[in-house]
Design goal:
Elements lengths: L20 E7 L2 E2 L3 E3 L11 H5 L2 E3 L2 E5 L5 E4 L1 H14 L7 H14 L12 E10 L12 E10 L10 E5 L16 H5 L2 H9 L4 E3 L16 E5 L5 E4 L8 H13 L4 E4 L11 E6 L3 E10 L2 E4 L9 H14 L10 E3 L2
Parallel strand pairs: 9-10, 9-15, 12-13
Antiparallel strand pairs: 1-2, 1-3, 1-8, 4-7, 5-6, 5-7, 6-17, 7-8, 11-12, 11-14, 14-15, 15-16
Helix pairs in contact: 2-3, 6-7
The structure holds pyridoxal-5'-phosphate and 2-OXO-4-methylpentanoic acid.
The site of 2-OXO-4-methylpentanoic acid (COI) has 5 residues, from loops.
Length: about 350
Amino acid sequence: MDKKNIDWSNLGFGYVQTEKRFVSNFKDGKWDDGQLTDDATVVISECAGVLQYAQTCFEGMKAYTTEDGRVVIFRPDLNAKRMEDSAKRLEMPVFPQDRFVKAIEETVKANLDYVPPYGSGATLYIRPYMFGSSSVIGVKPAEEYQFRVFTTPVGPYFKGGAKPITIKVSDFDRAAPHGTGHIKAGLNYAMSLHAIVTAHAEGFDENMYLDAATRTKVEETGGANFIFVTKDNTVVTPKSNSILPSITRRSLMYVAEHYLGLKVEEREVYFDEVKDFAECGLCGTAAVISPVGKINDHGKEICFPSGMEEMGPITKKLYDTLTGIQMGRIEAPEGWLYEIK
Ligand code: PLP
Ligand code: COI
């Protein structure tokens, strides 16, 4: 097989259709064996649960080409577990975790030509998702579901890659206490669209959401968790039941403590203390670590000492170590890299 003729280094974060995708259907109380297909379209009832009441959840992960030419996926077991949590909260059937990982492996193997080469700066983004496919008109869960996995080669989520971005404190809430902020439900993203379009129109790259109950604590952005660095180099990340438990963030906190020997804290972070941090970054599969240079709070600016030109020094170390692990340059903790080839 030959690599596709794609300008890997200039890819943005967009959809490029690849050859194969995995599909499994849930009917009469069980999942079928599933298979790969060339068909990139989905045909479902006009009254499908996903179309009427947004019964859908998804995951996001990446395949990387390592320095020595292997293809690996980063911690897919954690995505499998999180998708199970999402499915249960949305009254959907669970796609078994071992089958989830196998389906990812099969899909990536079938699209190896689209895995960007080492050093290109691009990766193969993997999107598993599930939705209610049978008709539902009263408000209740669907009886039939489809689980699918597609892949698409991607570049950086934010234009400019590692350049610091500017975000605003949003006037909208992302998630309610006891709501669905902790799972990867499509509905969380639908309701964030107006907020992100508004932020972009005002010239900001992203939103910082505060906790809906008190508007005093930092939650996350539309697609990433926060990490902060104090002036004495402690890595701090917000703890909240209404944010997505980011796999990247959990990995970074481990890297900070065990690879870089830094102090780490997962705790409530009050917005009032943000001005005192030395560095700020957004972390996630798509975002990797995107440094934040400036936060605009209704016209009042918080400018981090790391500035608008480059990542702060600790953020850079975290970035280099995490991507070093993902690309096989630095030894990974046991079980972090799932080898495809
Ligand atoms: N928070 C939100 C709302 C997200 O959509 C994502 C992306 O998956 C993350 C955080 C980061 O999570 P992860 O590191 O598991 O990709
Ligand atoms: C991810 O990082 O995988 C995400 O899902 C974030 C965004 C693209 C929704």
